[in-house]
Amino acid sequence: DAGITQSPRHKVTETGTPVTLRCHQTENHRYMYWYRQDPGHGLRLIHYSYGVKDTDKGEVSDGYSVSRSKTEDFLLTLESATSSQTSVYFCAISDKASSYNEQFFGPGTRLTVL
Amino acid sequence: SQQGEEDPQALSIQEGENATMNCSYKTSINNLQWYRQNSGRGLVHLILIRSNEREKHSGRLRVTLDTSKKSSSLLITASRAADTASYFCAPNYGGSQGNLIFGKGTKLSVKP
Known about the structure:
The complex is a heterodimer.
Chain A: E1 4-7, E2 10-13, E3 19-25, E4 31-38, E5 42-51, E6 54-57, E7 64-70, E8 73-78, E9 87-94, E10 104-105, E11 109-113
Parallel strand pairs in A: 2-11
Antiparallel strand pairs in A: 1-3, 3-8, 4-5, 4-9, 5-6, 7-8, 9-10, 9-11
Chain B: E1 5-7, E2 10-14, E3 19-24, E4 31-37, E5 43-50, E6 55-58, E7 61-66, E8 71-76, E9 85-92, E10 106-111
Parallel strand pairs in B: 2-10
Antiparallel strand pairs in B: 1-3, 3-8, 4-5, 4-9, 6-7, 7-8, 9-10
């Protein structure tokens, strides 16, 4: 696996609580992504970052915010978790955009919101 | 949606047989990528085929691209039980960020 770690790997939380997921990379890649994976939907992009402090929304960004204060860390925050945000969350990294953009994925975080 | 659509959704074969998965997409692409996901794990990049390429090989994998039909296929030859996984295609439509749009995947089961 590329040098990508996600923490925590599993989390159970209650509706209305804030949750922060962390993605950490040791590859010095410029691009970082957060996806969620749900049965019947495949992978859907939540937010992505194309540099430190440069982020943008993906397909399913409502209810999520992100921050990237340094190259190696990309944080995903659920300000007030809802049951619909129960999912498996994957972080990915890439050092190229547009023409190539092969992505390397982390191991995932399984989040359950009760 | 611009996601790739894989077909079939599920495929069950015997070890040693070939497995073919198809992907269709909507508009012009820069490239198309295939990924594998083993149960409970993250996705792993398998192969990238550029829009000006028609066929590409990597070990037991063969990918074809037909831009006139907006479709791609992934062939796994002489399949093994270890090939059991979900396979995703991801068209890259380019643009300023070149984000990938993943399909829902084909779930391949290879029986020993």
